[in-house]
Write a structure and sequence with these properties.
The protein has about 300 residues and is of the alpha+beta class. It has a domain of about 110 residues: TATA-Binding Protein. It is built from 15 helices and 5 strands. Helix 3 runs antiparallel to helix 8 and helix 4 packs across helix 8. The longest helix is centred in the C-terminal third of the chain and has 21 residues. The N terminus is likely disordered.
Length: about 300
């Protein structure tokens, strides 16, 4: 079943605080070679004229962009032309629809690399190609217009939007996964969704704390007046309320709560390596429990 965008962007996820002011200091050639930032700049050049891009770059380098905010479907900031002429400008793009997210999550669930990289907030190799394969490129395609809005009169001045785009490219070069949020899904929400899907594939169900399997009569119970005198006594139906001996929990819950590791662990994220080890040990333990004779052999 598809999820709504409200569920995709949970209110409990940390909110990105808008930067009060920033100067563009990156090398343009380096940005053009970055996986997502380069594609974003290419999309901006298709949308805005070369003069607007050049003037926007100049404004971004001069620190005329303030309070940049990146939210689902929108990048906005205050852009100053001269003292007293500051406008709030925003670049709007479409969100990826729920069905497409479902298809990508299903494709990602076949590779443990994606879950491990998202847990460490690292860019998985070939991640943008996976999205493009299912007809939903992370960077908006030519068929998806970029709409510019501002709080001034007349048509928006595109150089101001270009200035915002340059700073956004700088942030995307440092954190390419930020494009997921622009397209409508938080990194944390996508990671949780992927883990749940992988659990469903391997175990057929997933929940953090499953409800005990009680029938409807046990759940309803007698009225308070009927059981006031024996309220604190254990009745003959107590065994019916016992929880099952085996519960399906969300995997690696403690490991996820610890957050990304600060240790350098090579190309593969340390959290993903530990998760793989935990799964292997758990599988071996279950095998020995089910057939102790294997250990003897």
């Amino acid at each position: 079943m598809s999820r709504s965008r409200t569920e995709q962007m949970p209110s409990t996820s940390p909110r990105r605080k808008p930067a009060r002011g920033a100067k563009f200091e990156s090398d343009v050639t380096a940005l053009e070679g970055a996986p997502i930032a380069g594609a974003w700049l290419g999309r901006l050049r298709e949308e805005f004229s070369s003069d607007s891009m050049a003037r926007g770059l100049e404004a971004a380098r001069a620190g005329k962009v303030r309070r940049i905010e990146i939210k689902p479907g929108r990048i906005s900031a205050q852009v100053r032309s001269e003292p007293g002429d500051t406008r709030r400008v925003s670049i709007h793009t479409s969100l990826i629809d729920d069905l497409s997210w479902d298809r990508v999550v299903e494709a990602m669930s076949g590779e443990a690399m994606y879950a491990a990289c998202l847990l460490e907030r690292q860019w998985p190799q070939g991640f943008d190609g996976l999205f493009a394969k299912y007809g939903m490129p992370l960077v908006p395609a030519d068929s998806e217009p970029l709409e510019v809005k501002w709080d001034g009169r007349g048509h928006p001045e595109h150089w101001r939007a270009a200035a915002i785009g340059w700073l956004a490219a700088e942030q995307l070069a440092a954190d390419p996964l930020l494009m997921l949020e622009i397209r409508g899904h938080s990194i944390e929400g996508l990671s949780d969704r992927l883990r749940q899907h992988r659990t469903l594939m391997t175990r057929g169900g997933a929940s953090a704390h499953p409800d005990p399997p009680l029938d409807s009569e046990t759940l309803a119970g007698p009225s308070l007046s009927e059981c006031a005198e024996r309220f604190w006594r254990l009745g003959p139906d107590f065994d019916d309320a016992r929880r099952p001996t085996e519960l399906d929990h969300i995997p690696h819950a403690l490991l996820r709560r610890l957050g990304p590791s600060t240790m350098q662990s090579g190309r593969f994220p340390l959290a993903g390596l530990l998760a793989t080890i935990y799964d292997t040990v758990a599988d071996d333990a279950r095998r020995l429990q089910e057939d102790p004779a294997d250990d003897a052999s």
